[in-house]
Amino acid sequence: MSYEGLVDLLNKTPIKESLGIIASILNRIENVLKNPNDPMPRTFSKSDPVITTSILQSSLGTYCLQFMGCLEQPGYYFLPQNCRLNLLTELRDMLLMWKESVTVETSGTQVSSLMIDKLKPPSVIKPIVLPSLSARYTHPFFARIEMIFHSCLRYGDKNILERAKGLIPITTLEYKAQNRLRDFQRHIKINQLNVSDILIQDMLILELLEWFKKSFFTWVTSPLCDFCNRETKFSHYTHEKSYLQYTHRVELHRCAFCHQFTPFARYEDLNILLETRRGRCGEWANVFTLFCRSMGWDARIVFDETDHVWTEVYSVGQERWLHCDSCENICDQPLIYECGWKKQVSYVIAYSSEEVQDVTWRYTSDFKETLRRRTACKEDEMIRVLDDLRQRRQVKFSEARRKYLTRRSLMELAQFLTEKKPGTEDEKGRQSGDISWRVSRGEIDEPPRGFVWKIEPVASLLIQRVTVRYCSASDSYEFMSGRELKESKKGWASGCYFHQNIFRKVEDDWKQVYLARNENSSEQGTITWKFRFPANSSKKLKRVAIRFCCVMYADACIKAQLGCDGRAENINTDSRVYKSDNFAGQSELWVKATLSGGQGDIAWQHAQLFRQPLESDKFPFAIAFTFY
Question: What residue spans of 376-490 are helical by DSSP H?
């Protein structure tokens, strides 16, 4: 029994007949719910003329009884005492909604159902109607570009722009932007930074991003089950036409508990999205781009062919396009997809109601490798098609506007001539979506496990200590034998065995650096180092001494441990050195730190490993091994 089967029967049964059956079923359900311990309402006798003529006259009535959980016995149906009452409640609500959606006058036509009704937004507003334009290109890649470019005309609809602007708390955001700008200007003055003109618009973009993610839109990997409110998992896309009234894509997610399907519509209509306010990156970028346009900014939606969507906003003060990912609440970090998400960038196209631009070169630091992956078309064809689409769209623009857009495009193309180098901020993996979903897409910064420090004690009787230490400021490890440097490694991740949800934070304003959880992450972070000693060495491990300096604010917690298979000890997380003789003779040890807790929007920042000034040459993390 399934809701899909019930929906199908409701649509196939004549209206008058189905209404009579539903009335009898609803009456019985109400009697059971009012008197759950009374066996009488649970019995459906086949000799009862009401049951025979109103319920058992068609397969719809029989299906409803079976759906409720009724068991057929000789001469009657019976609803067991252990039936789930919440299932009866959900069936009742579904039938009531279906009943309200039809009238006797519509007899003979297909009708909507609960499943279909749940796909409707809370208040259905007339969709935006785009002007009809004939397709010019038949090449699949170019035809898709042309289709998306055409759909961006919706961002010019005055009614939807006005409606979107009315949803933004502009006064509040402007107040926060002013404060942010004053802080920024103060840091520039104190640190004597050479920064190009920053206007209030740039600060307002940051505030809009933060408000949009934290207060307006909701991320949905899989919706909760409509029937038991438990977690679901994507099953498949449905091709049932009755589902596709408001969108061409509807996902069905199956509940692992009750095995029912819950629909999740992937809307593109802006009016509907302003009502539902949920989805994944496509819906997020769609609405955020609209909000930016409603603020009077030049904004465009950006499609990455490796399956992600975001926004670009033109900064008047900096005279360049700023990358804005509303899902991640990040701005001006275009290399994060290639470096942090491990995407194999090929084609990244930006669309607005005025122009279309190939912006791939903003999002890669390896032009040569990216060019090898661009096999969808010839490069000169790509240039010609995009130029043709731009010219046809701008043919009715004023001469002044066309000149401005041409000049801006040329300046942008000039910026693409030089490869950019990624920074530490670009190494973070994806934050939006469940961990399992991010891992399945390969967009989480979980490196391969495996780096192990091989501690080879020197045969000399004078040298009995080997040290591995890390400096956050230089972001490097040193392997010391006595006082002699034997090996160095660059990069905090290069010397650890495993890390998850950790990155190196550089505070340019405060001139500090440390390891912390990924920005805006509410999940705990973990990092592990592993050390191995040769079993055939004449020297055996005697003592371990560790300096593990951490800083914690608010309710943050850092748990540091030293251990081997079978046992572990907690380590001091202050400047004191922790010593232990309990691992003497071991062939392998590990050190593990877990970061959690904190308060507010910057809870991720409240647990800090190895914090130190940028100019420091000290080692806040050091582990020394003494041998017999």
Answer: 379-394, 399-415, 435-441
Cβ(142)–Cβ(389) under 8 Å? no
> Cα–Cα distance between 179 and 400 in angstroms, integer?
36
Least confidently predicted of 27-41, 377-391, 440-454: 440-454
| Residue type at 599 in one-letter notation | Q
List residues bridging with 418 in a β-sheet: none
> Is 228 labeled as catalytic in the residue annotation?
no
Q: Give tens-digit pLDDT for 56-94.
A: 878 888 888 888 888 888 888 888 877 777 778 878 877
Cβ-contact 11, 110 below 8 angstroms: yes
> Among 458, 623, 463, which residue's Cα sits nearest to residue 537?
458
**What secondary structure letter does DSSP report for 476?**
E
CB atoms within 10 A of CB 450: 8
Active site residue: 64, 70, 228, 281, which one? 281
Q: In the numeric block, which tokens belong to residue 205?
A: 């973009």
Indicate the pTM of the whole model. Answer: 0.57
> Which of 529, 612, 524, 623 is CA-nearest to residue 572?
623
DSSP symbols for 535-580: TT-SS-EEEEEEEE-EEE-TT-EEEEEEEETTEEEE---SSSEEEE
User: DSSP of 34-71, one letter per residue?
Assistant: H-TT-SSTTEEETT-HHHHHHTTTSHHHHHHHHHHT-E
**Looking up tokens 């967009």, which residue turns up?**
443
239 catalytic per annotation: no
301: tokens are 């939606």
CA distances from 309 to 153, 217, 396, 495 (A): 17, 15, 29, 34
CA distance 591 to 563: 7
| pLDDT level of residue 107 (50, 70, 90 thresholds) | very low
User: Catalytic residue at 565?
Assistant: no
Local structure of 26: helix, strand or coil? helix
Helix and strand numbers, DSSP H then E, in the chain: 17, 30
Annotated catalytic residue: which of 304, 325, 426, 445? 325
Of 287-296, 510-519, 536-545, 596-605, which gets the smallest average pLDDT? 536-545
